């Protein structure tokens, strides 16, 4: 008999969701390009479900040049119009434009701090915060730290970066471990 590991309650039976939960969500990320990708995807999620964005993730990578900020900052109006016609992504003009705006801010941060990773991980003193939630109902949508991060990112030129988006980003890139305590990933990441 095969024993199925206990997972966080939000995970559906969809293979894509299971793989994301088991291999990515909550795992600390220090790679700048990957951090930028997740920041952009979390911004695209605003007002939508993560499942919607997760299903479109590969399309986003293709549409946005694998989230290479150096390429994105040079997008022309023609490229933005092309993105608005792309059915594989969320076709919201403000969200699409925010990726370009964020790429510019991201590159500026890299210049100032040596890397985006150095900048963003300072919000959690360079180590993941390990929470001890017993149920998904306990997880916050935002907190004082995500409020602080959101304010600073906005000050530094980022868009679509509210407190809830920042908290989701911190969860996704492992700045906080919000796996419930009886999830097999919680133990793996502590």
From TrEMBL:
Species name: Clostridium saccharoperbutylacetonicum N1-4(HMT)
- Keyword check for Acetylation, yes or no: no
Which superkingdom, per the lineage? Bacteria
What SUPFAM superfamilies does the record point to?
DNA-glycosylase (SSF48150)
This entry's Gene Ontology molecular function terms read: DNA-3-methyladenine glycosylase activity; ligase activity; metal ion binding
Q: Any idea which UniProt keywords this protein has?
A: DNA damage, DNA repair, Hydrolase, Ligase, Metal-binding, Zinc
- Which terms does the UniProt entry file under GO BP? base-excision repair
What InterPro entries does the entry give? Answer: Adenine_glyco (IPR005019), DNA-3mA_glycosylase (IPR052891), DNA_glycosylase (IPR011257), Tag (IPR004597)
Q: What is its EC number?
A: 3.2.2.20
* Positions with a binding annotation for Zn(2+): 8, 21, 179, 183
Function text: Hydrolysis of the deoxyribose N-glycosidic bond to excise 3-methyladenine from the damaged DNA polymer formed by alkylation lesions.
The residue ranges crossing the membrane are none
Known catalytic reactions: Hydrolysis of alkylated DNA, releasing 3-methyladenine
Q: What is the protein's given name?
A: DNA-3-methyladenine glycosylase I
* Keyword Zinc assigned: yes
